[in-house]
Amino acid sequence: MPLLTLSLSLTAMFAAAAPGVLPGELSQSQSPPQSAPQIARDEWKDCLYNKEVIRCRDEQSADGLRIIWVDGLRTRLDRRPPARPGLPSYWGDRYGGLWRRELLIQGNTLLTNLGTGNRILIPLRYPCKPPLKGEVGYCRY
User: Lower Cβ count inside 10 Å, N or C end of the chain?
Assistant: First the structure.
C-alpha cells in the first residue's frame, strides 16, 4: 500500500505542476532560453613586431603569407625553395630579405628575418575581450 500511495502522490504532483506535460518537457507556452549571439569585436589580432604589439590580420597559404597591419602597411612573404633537398625552405619579402618561419606549439607563427633579426609573431587566436552590454564574448574556454 505505501508504494501505491507514493506513486499516486508523485503523479498528482507532476500533473499539478504542468498539466498535460510530461516531466522534462516544455509546454508550448514555454520556450528554451535564447542566448545572445556570439559576436566578435573585430578581425584584428594582437601581433608582435620586435616585442611591440601591433594589431594585424593574416592570410596564410602553403606558398605565401600576407600580413595587413592596422596602420595600413602590408607585408607579403613568398616561400623560397630550399637550396638543396633536405634543407629548410625560407620565406622572402619584396626587399630581398629572407625569413625563417616557425610554427610554435600553441599554433602561433614566428617569423625571423635572417639578415636584420626582426621578429614577427602572429597569434593563432584573436584576443579575448570582455563582451559589450547585451552581448556574449566570442572567446570560449
Answer: C
